[in-house]
Design a protein that fits this description.
Layout (H helix, E strand, L loop, with lengths): L23 H13 L3 E6 L2 H5 L12 E4 L4 H14 L6 E7 H6 L2 H10 L4 E6 L39 H6 L5 E6 L3 H13 L4 E6 L3 H4 L6 H10 L6 E4 L2 E4 L8 H5 L14 H27 L1
Parallel strand pairs: 1-2, 1-3, 3-4, 4-6, 5-6
Antiparallel strand pairs: 5-7, 7-8
């Protein structure tokens, strides 16, 4: 695993929950909370973590925790922040967790409003690229040609028909102090970004790639490797935007998408010869998107 130097040994997200073995979200939450610390309140949108961390009458949370609907985690976090300020408790950290469905799609309106208003809290999107909790349906975070139960592979369509939404850049367009992407394969990078998000002078957004064992159709020991290949193939670039300046964690020798796809059941159709054109299209798209990030990095550094 990646270097975890500097993480607290205290477990604020306790073991014993019912997440899938190898769950990327559980790994992400555990390490986020090691940096956030006890002086915090967690808001949890509906999703897998809400289910597996709070099986009545038990809980994995060792800090105050509130479950919200899919659509209003950011609104609840905003209200908690303002209430704390009125009570003179502005030092309490407010963290909101949401999946990609509850962030990219259902919860985007509340999130956008909270960012525009400038409430100081950290929103963490646990991105496993589909509505995994309700049956592996496609979301705005699902990449084109990915198999899901609502974008099946057949004679009519070859997986999802649309490219994924560039949400981190949409969030950055709100001109908040801090936006970043991270991954469970690089815990040292994740730790630094959590700390910077906490230190931001206003709202902060952190999106973490979290491989899903059943949704991605991977083995339980492939979480780390799958996330690593996502970064190495440029399918999941790691970058941060601090006060409008974008910095990209460079990947100077990207691997072909096939290397990322071949370990996942959801992409096996793209490795077939009859679907070569779809694979080539997606490879070009990924390369174009990475070059666009490089241009943004250069232009934002010149401002």
């Amino acid at each position: 695993m990646a270097d975890i130097k500097g993480f607290s040994e205290e477990e604020l997200f306790a073991p014993g929950h019912s997440a899938c073995l190898g769950c990327g979200e559980a790994i992400a939450i555990r390490h986020v909370m090691k940096v956030v610390g006890k002086n915090s309140i967690v808001v949890q949108a509906t999703g897998c973590p809400e289910v597996y961390s709070s099986v009545y009458p038990l809980t994995s949370w060792k800090v105050p925790w509130i479950h919200t609907a899919f659509e209003n985690a950011a609104a609840v976090a905003s209200g908690i922040r303002e209430s704390l300020l009125q009570q003179g408790k502005g030092d309490v950290r407010v963290i909101a967790f949401g999946g990609d469905g509850g962030t990219y799609d259902i919860g985007f309106q509340a999130l956008s409003g909270a960012l525009e208003r400038g409430h100081k809290f950290v929103y963490v999107c646990l991105n496993n690229e589909a509505y995994e909790n309700t049956g592996v349906q496609r979301s705005g975070a699902t990449e084109k040609y990915t198999w899901t139960t609502t974008s099946p592979v057949g004679k009519t369509i070859v997986g999802k028909s649309q490219y994924r939404k560039p949400l981190p850049l949409i969030i950055a367009a709100h001109k908040i102090p801090y936006v970043a992407t991270a991954s469970v394969h690089n815990l040292f990078d994740l730790k630094l970004k959590i700390q910077r998000a906490l230190d931001a002078k206003g709202p902060a957004y952190l999106e973490i790639l979290c491989p899903c064992i059943p949704g991605w159709k991977i083995e339980t020991d492939m979480t780390y490797d799958s996330a690593t290949l996502a970064w190495k193939s440029n399918m999941w670039p790691l970058f941060e935007v601090i006060n409008g300046k974008l910095t990209l964690l460079k990947n100077t020798a990207p691997i072909p998408l096939q290397e990322y796809f071949k370990v996942q059941g959801r992409y096996q159709h793209l490795l077939k010869s009859e679907n070569k054109l779809y694979l080539e299209e997606l490879q070009k798209h990924v390369a174009d998107e990475y070059r666009a990030l490089e241009k943004l990095e250069k232009s934002s550094g010149e401002n």
